[in-house]
Specification:
The protein is an alpha+beta fold and about 425 residues long. It has 11 helices and 10 strands. The chain folds into 3 domains: about 110 residues, Butyryl-Coa Dehydrogenase, subunit A, domain 1 (Orthogonal Bundle); about 100 residues, Butyryl-CoA Dehydrogenase, subunit A, domain 2 (Beta Barrel); about 170 residues, Butyryl-CoA Dehydrogenase, subunit A, domain 3, CATH 1.20.140. The strands form 2 sheets. Strands 1, 2, 3, 4, 5, 6, 7 and 8 form an 8-stranded mixed beta sheet that branches. The protein has a two-stranded antiparallel sheet with strand order 9-10. Helix 5 packs antiparallel against helix 7 and helix 8 runs antiparallel to helix 9. It is globular, with a radius of gyration of 21 Å.
Length: about 425
């Protein structure tokens, strides 16, 4: 397989993290381990322990967390490149890194000081958890009793903490006067029951199991409002609302998988002989044209991603709230880049012919895993509908897009 061909975007340096080169070099150190254990992760239906260990020792799990808690606090553009590079190396490693790193950003930016100190004590922690309020949190002395069942706990088997969300049960049993209060809660992995449910077609190596929590006590300090928790520490990154904070992850993953698919088919084409004309795929003019189109589509999607996320980041650094047009771009770029990446991976898989069916072929894994990613809530078709309404001036913000309240004073860095 050739080295990844990821062109350097043209942008002003102040946007970029000084940690960028070091962290991209860390991805390259992990690459060989992730590639060597890709099939093992698939068979085990969770990331192979050797890959988890390599990611831990690399420091990559800390890329998005606040510096005050041992993180690198990378900007969204740098994050996107790191997730892209890791997904190019191995889809399961890329997805697992993305989930844990971005949950670390959420936890680190929003938990009260006491809870943050507990969660981030010791070696840098790994995280899993679904941010959909499938559970119920009942108020008890000093905190909450949490119970519920959640799906898609990517990386839960190697996580140290599960950061999940729930509806706060009304005190006294009275129905709430308005929308229910929702919370995010950090729970030690030992208090979580993992169900063996992750038998799926794509992203098999991510261990995205269902999990249950059966009445675990969660102290107040390990909770925060959901989805619009106030920022408690760190810089402009943690002022971004939940969906915006997550955007770099899904986009970077999709770009990395599609680039790997194109690199793989380019390597296969000279030696793959098509049966009917008895000519190598790489000598077919039709394949040349399709490959050129795929390269153009992927490069355009990548440039769009840097533009949309860059404008979002500029707004955050300037202390400006995201407008409806900004939200339209943030949602559009995630759905559009995912669609383009799935199309590109599909082209590469089909061009690979019968040999692409075999488990050892990265082409089938790129195809399956990229199409699995199209099912994620970050990449739904209603992003286009929202953009259309925004263009007509009739869009309204969903609660998941609501701005964060004014920053809480404790621990906030300038």
């Amino acid at each position: 397989m050739s080295e990844p061909r990821m062109s350097e975007p043209r942008m002003s340096e102040p946007r970029r993290s000084p940690e960028r080169e070091r962290l991209l070099a860390a991805v390259e150190r992990v690459r060989g381990v992730a590639t060597a254990h890709a099939e093992a992760s698939e068979r085990q239906r969770t990331l192979a322990p050797a890959v988890v260990d390599a990611l831990r020792s690399s420091g990559l799990f800390a890329i998005a967390a606040p510096r005050a808690l041992g993180g690198a606090e990378c900007d969204p553009l740098t994050q996107m490149e790191i997730f892209e590079a890791m997904a190019h190396a191995d889809t399961s490693a890329g997805w697992s890194l993305m989930i844990s790193a971005l949950l670390a950003a959420m936890v680190g930016g929003t938990l009260p000081d006491e809870g943050a100190r507990e969660v981030f004590a010791g070696p840098f922690p790994t995280f899993a958890g679904l941010q959909v309020p499938c559970g119920v949190a009942r108020r008890v002395a000093g905190g909450y009793a949490l119970e519920g069942r959640w799906a898609f706990g990517s990386g839960v088997r190697h996580a140290r903490w599960v950061f999940t969300s729930a509806i706060a049960a009304p005190e006294g049993g009275a129905p709430p006067a308005g929308p229910p209060e929702m919370l995010s809660l950090a729970v030690p992995r030992e208090q979580v029951v993992i169900e063996d449910t992750w038998d799926v077609a794509g992203l098999r190596g991510t261990g995205s199991e269902h999990y249950r929590i059966e009445g675990a006590f969660v102290p107040e300090a390990r909770t925060c409002p959901f989805p619009a928790a106030p920022q408690r520490r760190g810089g402009a990154l943690y002022s971004l609302p939940f969906v915006a904070l997550m955007a770099a992850g899904h986009v970077g993953f999709a770009l990395g998988v599609a680039r790997r698919a194109l690199d793989e088919i380019a390597a296969v084409a000279p030696r793959r002989v098509k049966v009917w004309p008895q000519l190598a795929l790489g000598s077919h003019a039709a394949f040349h044209m399709d490959l050129g189109r795929a390269e153009a589509k992927l490069a355009a999607a990548r440039a769009y991603a840097f533009d949309a996320l860059g404008r979002m980041w500029d707004r955050a650094r300037a202390g400006e709230a995201l407008s409806i047009d900004d939200w339209s771009a943030i949602r559009l770029v995630q759905t559009y880049v995912t669609e383009v990446a799935a199309e590109v991976a599909g082209f590469a898989y089909r061009a690979g012919g019968g040999s692409a069916l075999y488990a050892e072929s990265p082409l089938q894994r790129c195809f399956r895993d990229m199409h699995a990613a199209t099912q994620h809530i970050s990449a739904t078709d209603d992003a286009y509908e929202f953009a259309g309404r925004a263009r007509l001036g009739i869009a309204a913000l969903h609660p998941m897009l609501a701005p964060r309240p004014s920053p809480a004073p404790a621990g906030r860095e300038p």
